[in-house]
Write the structure tokens for this entry.
Amino acid sequence: MTSTPPEHAVHSRGPGPFITLRIRRLSSGLYLVATSRRHRKGLPAHEVEEPAHAIRNPPASAAAFRRVWAPGRIGWWIAVLFAIGSIQFMIGALAATWPNASPEVLRDAGTLGWIFFVGSIFFTSAAWLQWLEALNGDVSTALAHGPKRWKWFGWRPRNLGYLASLVQLAGTILFNFNTADAMLPGLSWQQQDLLIWTPNMIGSICFLVASYLAYAEVSHGAGSFAPRSIGWWIAVINLAGSVAFQLSALESFVGPAPSSHQMLFWSTLWTSIGATCFLVGAYLLIPEVFDTD
């Protein structure tokens, strides 16, 4: 009786200096692949026949869409918090875009201000959990044996998911300032640009950068097309939402002359479109938690 050949060493791959997947050849001749996004979401590694197939995202499990309850998973809480924040931004933006069609309570500027501010707090809470998830789910440790210790602080410069989460967390904090300052009364146009527009603009840039980093993570490069992958759709839809937020920020600049009604309309409309995209992306985070097949 011959002994089973030992499994081969683990190899790391990714675009440039980044690691987005780890591969190990099995004694069966197949290859075990752990990808960055799936690993940090707590999903198992999958098998492929050839190393060249490693960058192909595994198709979504149909059963994953039939389950919704997983409060013991950090990814589930990220989804719920992002969804709540997205709904509040969407409601506030739609009410500001079409005030005459909105309930009377949503026509009050103070009420809308609080809706946006509370929504930004939910965004920040979700982004912080997402950063912790990426910190403790570093793909560079995938396919390795031994216990792992939970970390509250750390630096993962070669992990695109970690960098995306960190940049998005910074963006949500800027939105906290932006939405809080928007409720300050009697601001001049210079003060509005400094306290409201500037953090909004920089925060939107952070969201755009973070979304592209997340897209590059699932693509294992500059771009990809993987419509059967839940993670790919999440990255694409969030990227679209970030583009909409960026367009909203551009339209919200305040000059010495009063902003036109058309600029205000497009600013709030783009915000509602972006929030809708983020809501869809947040929903897809839930079946992703169960995408284990």
User: Anything to note?
Assistant: Residues 10-58 form one domain. Confidence is low (pLDDT under 50) at residues 1-6. The first helix runs from residue 36 to 40.
